[in-house]
Write a structure and sequence with these properties.
2 copies of one chain form a homodimer. Chain A has one domain: Arc Repressor Mutant, subunit A (Orthogonal Bundle), CATH 1.10.10. Helix content of chain A is about 60%, strand content about 10%. Chain A contains 4 helices and 3 strands, in the order αβααββα. Chain A has a 3-stranded antiparallel sheet with strand order 1-3-2. In chain A, a hairpin with a 7-residue loop joins strand 2 and strand 3. In chain A, helix 1 packs across helix 4. The longest helix of chain A is centred in the C-terminal third of the chain and has 25 residues. Chains A and B meet through helix 1 and helix 4 of A and helix 1 and helix 4 of B. The structure holds a DNA duplex (30 and 30 nucleotides).
DNA sequence: ATGCATACATAGATTTTGAATGTATCTTCG
DNA sequence: CGAAGATACATTCAAAATCTATGTATGCAT
């Protein structure tokens, strides 16, 4: 089980990373996260939508409704330039810490 | 600059990882973190001591004072078995998420 | 004696999160 | 047709965790 703080720290970068690969809507993002994490990360919609709203307020993402054929209306989110910058810098931070952790726990291997 | 949430998520695992390598005291832990992160993580003592106290209350670490030669008294922290378990499971979680992030951002390379 | 690094400690204002809850549509299957 | 379950989005606010600000004190160098 992933700790609360780690969950909190990873939510935004994961959302940004997913949207960097193409626009997407809330419900689908949840499934993609579950998918890409091998089932270890299971988000609820109740936690995701507020996060998406906050990220939109911060201009990391934008949204627009799309009504198609037989489907329910969906709100699609798109990453902004600011969002891409944020993602890039988050990834750098994650790398620092991950490498610090690895360096401490197995000092012999270097790896990535 | 490392984000607040990421900072929060990494504090405990880093402390545990350091103590897994041998007992240590607060001030020295701060320097070790700075050192191992290449200067990217700079903790303040004011944020560390409360964390250490909470971790001790949760039995992840124990502490005892050591008064030596010309030095000031220092409170040395030791990792417990429970702490080692915690560290191990945190590392697993970190790996999941790091790999999910990497998988999303550069889908071609696998790596570790 | 002055300044700086070392060393530990506490309180509590502030922020943040996400669980709980609500609404509604689409699909499937008997 | 009707029921059940998956899909889809939305809001509120109680509860909890963090760490900034602040305080104390010693060792060492010059």
């Amino acid at each position: 089980m992933v700790s609360k703080t780690l969950m909190a720290a990873s939510t935004r970068p994961l959302i940004l990373a997913i949207l960097a690969g193409g626009k997407n809507y809330g419900y689908s993002i949840i499934q993609k996260v579950k998918d890409i994490s091998g089932g270890h990360l299971e988000w609820t919609d109740g936690m995701l939508y507020p996060v998406l709203q906050r990220m939109e307020m911060e201009n990391l993402i934008t949204s627009n409704w799309k009504l198609s054929d037989g489907n329910r209306p969906r709100r699609y989110y798109t990453i902004t330039d600011k969002g891409r910058d944020e993602l890039a810098s988050e990834l750098i931070s994650w790398r620092y810490i991950w490498q610090a952790l690895k360096g401490l726990t197995d000092p012999l291997k270097a790896g990535d």
